[in-house]
Each structure stands twice: as structure tokens, then as C-alpha cells.
Amino acid sequence: MKQTSVRVVLAEDNEVIRAGIRKLLNKAQDIEVVGEVGNGVAAIRLLDQLRPDVLLLDIEMPLLNGIEVARQLKDNHNSVPILVLSAYTNREYIRLMLDFGVSGYLLKDEAPERIVEAVREVARGQTGWVSPQVRAKFDSNH
Fold first, then answer.
1. In the chain, where are the structural domains located?
2. What gap in Å lies between CA 49 and CA 105, rounded to an integer?
């Protein structure tokens, strides 16, 4: 990969979904999945080792869920941009993750190009990146 690649750690407990996301991201010439894990404890350990540009984080994982991962990273002042990729559309989950400083929140059924775009944008420092589906949850229920 090129020196300018966006380096991503992928934290997702479902191996099939993880493989699909890895394949999707690695197809992009400017993104490289440098590590992947299936639980939150391993995610924090791998972040310390690899220092990626973006953590792509699922919420529902064993040992330490994505909410706890985000909370620990915030408490430890780890500034890696976090992009949540989850099946959860619950407003409280979304708000909690955004409160913990995640850079963005996407749903797993997003169009593949939207996931790639979000990884790029979050790596560039954009925050508050949410998919149109997630934004609609907040716009419709003030």
C-alpha cells in the first residue's frame, strides 16, 4: 500500500461481516486495514500497538462492547478517530457514542461507498459524521 494510506483497525465480532468490510476497505486504493479484532479488549490493545488513523467499531462485541471501548478511549485521552458501524438505530446508543467523542456513526446496511467515504472523512478529522438514516432519527424526534 501507499505511504498515504488511511490505516484502519476493524473491531467487529462477526467474522463474515468483518471479512466483507475488510474486502470493501482494502479495495479502496487509499485505505488499508492494518488490524482486525473480534472483541473490545483486543481492540484497545491493538490500538495501542498499531496507532491507526481510524478505528471502525461495532457496538455489540464480547468482553468489552463498543460503548465501553469508546468510554475507555475517551477516559485515557486516546484521540484515535472512531467510526461506529452498527446495526443499532437506538437514539440513546447513538447519542451516547457521540457524547463519548466518536467521530461518526453509520449503520451496517449503508451503501458500501458511504462506508468508504466516512472512513476517509473521519481520517481527515471530520467529526459528527452520521449517515442520513441516523440523522433522520434525530431530525424526526426532537
1. 6-140
2. 24
